[in-house]
Amino acid sequence: MRLNDPLVTSFLYNGKEYDIDLAFDNVLDLFDVLEDKTLRDYEKAEINLELLLNESLKGKEAIDLWNYVYEHFIEIKNKQPIEYDRLGNPMPVKENEKERFIDLDKDAEYIFASFQQAYHINLYQQQGKLHWHEFQSLLNGLPSNTIMQRIIQIRMWKPSKGESSEYKQSMRELQKVYALEEVKE
Description:
Blueprint: E1 10-13, E2 16-19, H1 24-35, H2 41-53, H3 59-74, H4 95-98, H5 108-119, H6 132-140, H7 147-156, H8 165-177
Antiparallel strand pairs: 1-2
Protein name: Bacteriophage Gp15 protein
């Protein structure tokens, strides 16, 4: 995202211009389609293009265009800096850096509350209006005093020396409450 570029509402692909609806709620619908295990990949591409572009495309044409759209306009990229050792070799990524700390579906109520608290934005009233890139920026910039940021801090917490056993126990219990996956005991 560049602040001196307009928000994407259309794009050129193979010499054809397409209008694209990147309202955040429309993009969230795409993620629902992508999670649907009953659909084949080409069906997901066709459905998602219909949602975004209001175009009915089939086969390889749909798959190629969907891949382009996903890569350029939808994909959430984790922009973590690559760390290098003294010899200049890339360091392995730690396991916890690969973990997800937010789920747009499971955390919907906390995201809604956080947008209300931080920005006085009612996401239901912004359906069809708030662009996906704006939504992502606002989500990434939530202040630390919002419920969503607090939950992320809880999910990321690791015990450290100097913390009381009561505090550690309390944080472990909170991690179970806010876990994204089922916690095995």
